[in-house]
Structure formats: structure tokens, C-alpha cells
Automatic annotation (TrEMBL):
Protein name per Swiss-Prot or TrEMBL: MYND-type domain-containing protein
SUPFAM superfamilies: HIT/MYND zinc finger-like
The entry's keywords: Metal-binding, Zinc, Zinc-finger
A Pfam short name: zf-MYND
Highest rank taxon of the organism: Eukaryota
Keyword Membrane: no
Limits of the MYND-type domain: 75-116
Length: 422
């Protein structure tokens, strides 16, 4: 099993005064040796806006077109919302969008000139990161429409993939019994059965099934590549990948038939996707046990403290609260995971990171884009942690490319993985 070769576009070193803030724009960037980006003399004319509809496009970059169809986007400068086809992009990097050339010029002067070269380089990774094996549309501008086109809008676990059910707290979506219903009524062969893998013995001994990526998994389950289930399975399979491949200590526990205890931080939509986590147990293939302790403020009060068995080898405990406050009451972890950790938007990570530093437990984070990983690294370093598993594309990231309201940078649920204390 090998990692995809991947070189981080840039290792962003932040000035210390920026270390714990979430503003990523007004920083200086130190490029790696020999990789300095050409910076033209500063003038507002050195980057001019381009209208989306005028972008030159290659067939392979079809997904750029989706913005023209007009989802609601936001000008990065004035933060006003507009329809996609009314907006401009930075003509050099195309990564950030503006309502007007006035906003674009002001943003260039105040912030963007420092990161435009970096963003351009990150935009160039798009091809490398796209997963081309799948036969469903892997680019989403308007989630409701995307789900509609697949026949799964407002159904089963997919209800968390758009904002139609955002009024309902996480973990409390009503469920109908039946696996087919939880997978949104997909055809029988389009979702994984809740059943063991037949005939999967190595030299007559059962041991956890090791997977290198989606195509191996789809093969193993005989799923058609037109099935979008990877977008939901990204959470359980990323967790499984971390336990079996990235964390040596938890892997050894499994091989010895022991229990791996995972502290799973900040669950949200996953709380309504429990049927998908059954796959973790099946992939264990008769070896070891996993206890997943999901802890976070989004766990609903009436579910906090409950334990449910998912198959015979996986137990999930739900704990409502802030990790650093609850941790002493939890069974000591073999590994800690925080998926789509969002250091960009969460400012409460500081104390949790201090705890992770003091316990020394292997901890893995995923985040959606390279720039969010750069933020994550900065927060980790500010907490005195060393990155021992460098930022790497996650083979079990969702194949579905998303974007922020004002950014076009390649972004995927669980896009990249990094780790400390590993
Ligand atoms: Zn604007
Ligand atoms: Zn730019
Ligand atoms: Zn919807």
C-alpha cells in the first residue's frame, strides 16, 4: 500500500501574531526554496478581473462552468451575495471571486497580492485531485439539484447533503426502518449490504481488509461506479483507513484481536449516517473490535450517554460536550480523529490541542482543501504539536468537489489528511 505521491503546494509559515486567528488572507507566504512564484511589481493593474463567462475552458475543466448556472456566491471583499453568473474572478489564479472590479482592486492591494501565486498553484492541482473513475457528476454547485438528478434528494442519509433539513438537529432525523431507505432508495446493487465480505481469508486467517482507495472498495463490494455512496462512506472509510493504515498502534491492536478506542471529535451529519458505519465492522473481517466515542457539542442531549452496537464488532458511544471537558471521563483512546476539522471556522480548538499534546495520543485530522490544511498546521504548530503525518490527499475523500461561497479552490469532504503524535 503506497500513498499517492504528493508534494504540498507550499508550506505556509505564518507570522506568530497571526497564529491563532482564522484570517488567511493578509499573511506573508514563504515559498519553498527554488519555488518562488513570480511576483510582478505591486500595482492594481497587475491582476485584472475576468468574467466567468469569458474564461477559456478545456473539456477537462468542464466543472468550471457550473458557476455560470448560478448558485449563490459571495464577493470575498464586500461579502455581498450574488448569483454565480454575475461574478468576476481573479484573472491570475481564478480562485477568488468578486462582485466588481472595484472590490477586486481593493482586495488585491489589501490582501490578495500576497497569496495569488499560492492560490494559482493550488488551483493547478485540480486535475491531480479529481477522481475520474466515477460515473456520476462529481462537481456540485447546487446540492439540491445534484441530489435531485441522482433521485436521492430529501431521502435517507442524503438529507444531510443539502440544507433542506438544516432545521432538524444533527442525530434527530427521523428514520424509516430498512437499509434501502437509509441509502435513499437506491437500487439494491448500488449500496453496500450490511453483511460480511464472503471468502475474504488470507492464508486461512481472518484479518482486517486493507484498502488503498475507492476503486478497490467498489470492486470488493461489486458496486457500480455510478453509485454515489462514496460521498457518504467517506466518513466511515476514512476512519477505517486511519485505524488500519495510518495509525500503527491501532493497527497492531486489531491484528491482536483487541479493541481499538477511537475518540471521534465533532460529529455532525455523521450522527444521521450510522448505517454507513456498519461497514467499519465488516471491513474488520472478524478481527479485533472498535469502540467509537463520538464527542462534540452537536450530539443531541437525549442521545448523550447512549451506546449502540453496529454489528458485532463496532460500538458507538455518543457524548455531548466539549472534548477537553469530557475527555477525562472517557475511556483512554488508541487514536483520536477529527474529520473535516475546520480550523478555519472553529476557534475553540486551542484547549483540545493542548490536551492532545499532553496525552501524546496519535491524532489525525482531515480538512477539505489545501489552504484549510495550511490553517490546521498553523494551529497545530501554535499549540506546540509537530506534524508527523504530512498533508496528503486522502484516498477516501469524497469524490464530490465542493467550493466555498467565495473560493474556487479544489475542496472535498475529507480531502486531505494530516496527523500529529503518529
Ligand atoms: Zn464586492
Ligand atoms: Zn489571484
Ligand atoms: Zn435540498
Amino acid at each position: 500500500m503506497a500513498f499517492e505521491p504528493f508534494i504540498e503546494t507550499v508550506d505556509v509559515q505564518w507570522p506568530s501574531e497571526m497564529a491563532r486567528t482564522s484570517d488567511i488572507v493578509a499573511v506573508t507566504v514563504s515559498y519553498p526554496p527554488g519555488k518562488a512564484y513570480e511576483e510582478k511589481p505591486v500595482s492594481s493593474a497587475s491582476s485584472t478581473p475576468t468574467k466567468y463567462t469569458e474564461l477559456p475552458r478545456e473539456d477537462s475543466l468542464n466543472d468550471v462552468k457550473i458557476y455560470v448556472n448560478g448558485g449563490l456566491r459571495q464577493c470575498v471583499m464586500c461579502e455581498r451575495e450574488f448569483l454565480g453568473d454575475q461574478l468576476l474572478a481573479c484573472s491570475k489564479c481564478r480562485a477568488v471571486i468578486y462582485c466588481s472590479s472595484t472590490c477586486q482592486k481593493q482586495h488585491w492591494k489589501e490582501a490578495h497580492k500576497h497569496v495569488c501565486g499560492l492560490y494559482k498553484a493550488m488551483m493547478e492541482r485540480e486535475e491531480e485531485l479529481a477522481m475520474k473513475i466515477f460515473l456520476f457528476p462529481c462537481s456540485v454547485d447546487q446540492p439540491c439539484k445534484w441530489l435531485e438528478s441522482l433521485g436521492i434528494h430529501r431521502k435517507g442519509m442524503w438529507r444531510r447533503k443539502c440544507s433542506c433539513y438544516s432545521y432538524c438537529p444533527f442525530g434527530l432525523l427521523p428514520v424509516k426502518p430498512g437499509l434501502s431507505d437509509s441509502w435513499g432508495g437506491l437500487d439494491d446493487e448500488e449500496y453496500p449490504r450490511d453483511s460480511p465480505f464472503p471468502n475474504h481469508l488470507r492464508e486461512g486467517i481472518s484479518s482486517p481488509i486493507l484498502l488503498s482507495g475507492w476503486s478497490e472498495y467498489y470492486n470488493l463490494r461489486s458496486l457500480p461506479l455510478s453509485s454515489p455512496v462514496a460521498d457518504i462512506l467517506t466518513h466511515p472509510l476514512t476512519l477505517y483507513y486511519i485505524i488500519t493504515t495510518l495509525s500503527i498502534s491501532s493497527k497492531n491492536l486489531l491484528l491482536n484481536g483487541k479493541e481499538v478506542i477511537v475518540h471521534y471529535l465533532g460529529p455532525e451529519g455523521e450522527l444521521d449516517s450510522m448505517p454507513a458505519f456498519a461497514e467499519v465492522g465488516h471491513l474488520l473481517n472478524g478481527s479485533g473490535n472498535v469502540q467509537i466515542v463520538m464527542v462534540g457539542p452537536e450530539v443531541p442531549l437525549n442521545l448523550s450517554g447512549t451506546t449502540s452496537g453496529i454489528g458485532s464488532r463496532v460500538r458507538v458511544n455518543l457524548v455531548r460536550g466539549i472534548y477537553q471537558e469530557e475527555a477525562t471521563y472517557l475511556p483512554p483512546p488508541s487514536v483520536v480523529v477529527a474529520l473535516n476539522c475546520g480550523f478555519d471556522s472553529h476557534t475553540i480548538w486551542g484547549d483540545a490541542l493542548d490536551l492532545i499534546k499532553s496525552t501524546g495520543v496519535p491524532t489525525f485530522f482531515t480538512d477539505q482543501s489545501e489552504i484549510s490544511c495550511a490553517n490546521a498546521k498553523q494551529a497545530l504548530r501554535a499549540a506546540g504539536l509537530h506534524i508527523t503525518h504530512p498533508v496528503t490527499p486522502n484516498p477516501f475523500r469524497s469524490p464530490v468537489r465542493t467550493h466555498g461561497p467565495s473560493s474556487n479552490l479544489p475542496s472535498y469532504s475529507n480531502g486531505f489528511v494530516l496527523g500529529v503524535n503518529t
